[in-house]
Batch of 4 targets.
Target 1
Amino acid sequence: MKKPLLRTSTRPLALCLGLLSFLSSCEKKEDTPALEVKPTTCLPSKNYNAADPTQYTTFQYDDLQRLTRISDYVKGKESRASIYEYNAQGQVGRITITDEALSIDLGLPDKVYMIYTFDYNSLGQVSKYSSYKPWLNNSYALEETTCEYDSEGNRTKTTTTTDNGANSFTTVYTYKDGNCIQRDINQGPSPVGPTFYQYDLSKENKLRSFNQKFSLMHLTGPTASKNMSAESTQTNADPQHNSTYKQTYEYNEHGYPTKVNDTWKNFFNSGTTVIAMEYVCQ
């Protein structure tokens, strides 16, 4: 009679041991860190005019994924190039622009039309940039611009001096929710009306970081915006001479724009340009 009692008493113990083993295995699984899924990054490789594929732009990079050259082609032949060089901190230090057509018109032996150089502050922001036209042999060959920023890192003001500092003008940028919504240029006796910008707040600008690092428009102008641009209006003293540009997009599965429909209208004419965009994604 004792043996059956011994057998039945071991069953709860076996169940407990099994339960402990199961819980232990669960704990081990929970302790195993989940694989981190990195977001896909896409770098522009080629843009082209959908109406004329012989007009296109290519992008080249070094082993550190830094932009080294932008080449514009017309009828399959390079017409203009922007060549990038970097400082010891890996920031854009110099951009040299060559232009095939202008080199013929202006007699430029090395095809160099413009040279930009950049200085940075301790926060990695462009504090000063210069643009130099080596073929223009006068005091207007060099322009120097200083930059100011707000506490969020947005470039709020630039001051450009020309003619060896004898003349200057300022550009002021206004931001809202991470987007540049207004640009005001003060050129003294030749005032320029403000430009207003609108955005698609439902679409993140996936090229924001790329543009902020490499785009000449943003290296020398406003901080790249958080959302995709939707419309811009350049105003004039005579409203009939205002110019309006509207953008709509198509996107790839990673949220990068693959086609831009840019519809524009001014006092003289109007039209739509369609640009297709290709990437290398990883």
Target 2
Amino acid sequence: MQLELPDDRQPVIIAALRTPICRANGALKHLRSHELLAPVLSALLTDTGVDAGEVADVVVGNAVGAGGNVARLTALEAGLPVTVPGLTVDRQCGSGLDAIVLASRLVAAGGGTYLAGGVESISTAPLRAHRNDDGEAAFFSRAQFAPHGHGDPDMGVAAENVAREYGISRARQDEFALRSHRRAVAAQAKGTFARETVALPADSGSAAITADDGPRPKLNEALMARFPAAFVESGSVTAGNSCFDADGAAAVVITSLARARELGAADALAVLGTETAGVEPKLLGIGAAAAASRLLAAKSVDAADVDLVEFNEAFASQTIACLDRLGIDSLRANADGGALALGHAYGASGAVLVTRLLAQARQVPNQTPSAQGKLALAMISIAGGMGTAALFRHIRL
């Protein structure tokens, strides 16, 4: 499909970078959210030649941070002028992708150049509590995502619900998770992730943190089979086919096609369309399929024609179920592994998907300036029974 907007309104992503993604309470536990994301913003400005004063806004997704508008805090931490504002988006796991979606719509409405993405420091997230009638604090581990009448299962229980509802076997889940690790390990060995990763300072003056710490090279079928059910007795969802909590950040530069050409960008991901959908909260993991199905139908695109697919692998069960519903062979998704191997940094994960898509599109730059490039699809399911999807085309400028 051709681009539909005039060049001065067509949103394009000209750069995308991320931090290493590391297990919560691990290598990045000394960095708060704004300290994770600020180096990414600085690197994006350097790489693209965008003047910091040109940035119209910094739009950042965040799910469990301390509030206080982390986007504004990050912009100042990154050294942007005080004239550049910041907007924080909370759609839980979808926050990073939804921040990019929002920025793309601002460009389409005639806005300028934006820094957009997501960040999560689960390690430094504040303790949360409700105030009881007597004034005492009642601490809770997660927010309520749906009224009790709708059902509000924990994430793992919801993953079991999806596995049962859509007939996703333990064998398929384990196979998918193991493939994610093997692909991520192979990508690390080839240096694939290094091209999209901004190093972060380590604690206590040791060497910089440059690599993801989640992929497990020694994981095999026998080890996968030993994991017991993690959330429901005799269930199929285990620690092995579920993601782990992680810290990390990712962001993009998004502007108009006309401005991208003025900046001398060589290529870009053109935003063709986005959708967010709601589903039954008890089956929250299927939300991405609902959003993507609506999006592909609106753009008259067959799922088989999408070249690159990135899905947030919070749980293997929901990933497989969504891909099945869309008619996408699971072998085609997440070419270099996903959150099952890399980890899930809540508010950052949706932006990581976009970073991965741009990097993958650039690995085999096989189109000429006059030819249509690869179609790329990012999808993420969201707590409370939602999902967001975004469709892109890789174009040469």
Target 3
Amino acid sequence: MWQDKRQTAADWLAYFQRNHAQLLPLPAEAGITAADYPPAFWRSIAMFQLGEYSEGHNLMRATHRWIANGGDPDLASAMQWFIREEQRHAADLGRFLKAIQQPCLRSHWLDQTFRRLRRQNLNLETALTVLLNAEIVSLLYAQALQQAIASPLLQTIARQIEWDESQHLRFQAVQLQHLRRERSPWRRRLSHALQRSLLWLTLRAIWPDHRPVFRAAGWSFANLEQVAFATLASTLDSTLARQPVQSQPA
């Protein structure tokens, strides 16, 4: 189980600002053409690009409601920087698709389904619970992209996304830790069981469309499922303790 010393919203705001100043430089050329991979491969990436963009209105509303009830006011700024990172991912992926003359998607039923779910009047904990699954999928998809494609531009974009998403998981785990700290262990475990069920459904929903990229990276569905649940377990384990953890491994 990893632990994180960034416990306050101000800590995370400072992290997001530092990260913005240290982004990997992107190569100017894609290094490949659209003909190098089948159309289903590019459609998967276009779907991923579509899913990465969000204005975050619903998440920010949930955040402001939590702050109004006594939550840390710095979380609003930290959340805005988090949303900005997700928008950067979408912009970078859009740059790559443009470089190989492939269109971005305007809509997709699966993306619309997830957006409808997020548009519900969710409290902050539920919003983060839903978001956590998307972050795990994004993290693993970015890892698969690096193994699946020979483009220096896309590999660099994917490396940056992988790093960002790994930190997003920590950010959300810390927030869930704060939200759940007063709960009994069995209630936290119940929340985690529901989270695992939601992840199970999410993986089965995204696999048909994203299979070309995962297959090109050498991943079976069983591989994806195993790694996804291990990632979720390490994230949720950090929220079981009643008190915030204070150390981070080197």
Target 4
Amino acid sequence: MSSRPSPLSFSCVSPSPAPVSAPLSRSAVVTTLRAAGCVFAEDEAELLLSTARTADELAAMVERRTFGLPLEHVVGWAEFHGRRIIVDPGVFVPRRRTEFLVDQAIGLGLRTAERTGRPTVVVDLCCGSGAVGAVLATALHRVELYAADIEPASVHCARRNITDAGGRVYEGDLFDALPAGLRGRIDILVANVPYVPTEEVGLLPPEAREFEPLVALDGGADGLDVLRRVTAAAPQWLAAGGHLLVETSEHQAPRAVEAFTRNGLLPRVADSDELYATVVIGTREPAAGEGRAAGPP
């Protein structure tokens, strides 16, 4: 996997974007984007030119980009784990580093399916666009897929991404959104929780802090408030031998591990130097004689 950033992760900030007029040539698009501060203006120009269907649409897209909107919101999709994920305005943009969390979940899901011989029960909590769930549905082949988010725009977007894979998306606060029948049945629980400390949210690129939902970014005083809530409730929802996977930062990982251990999950930490990604994985070990709860929710 290349370490070069995807063109859909470029930053472009212009405090006073110049008005854009149509029609625009490739060179004019590049010049406008470069003037707005887009570091990879040539690559962005190619993407916008290939996406726009008319000259007027191109002009509008360039203007939105120079205003500071994330490129993913401008073109309407993000490249994630080799596929295009629909990303509506106001929805958290999936980050490339989260592909590492997905890879960990795929490995665990495949081993679970081999062990059980049944469809794997997967939940994408704090799902945002549903990118993680959409990839897992494809990679794991036989899944029961559920997703949830507290943001209505995210729920609408996630349904567009995972409904065709047979997934169901619910709106609400963490586990409160899920069907009660999922308790004790989840094999793979992925939770891409917000983990930016509150006082550091203002240091994020303007694209994130101005155009993505704050609830998807702000993790509380030390960035781990939502992680602790998920970890505290997860053992009630995981199947015997089920796994919880949470993305965090490298320096937050020791405190995250403490939360996992405190709630009875056997933790381990996985890191990717290439993607600058850290994932904490917690496994619910079955009690003596305990089996998996049966039946759909």
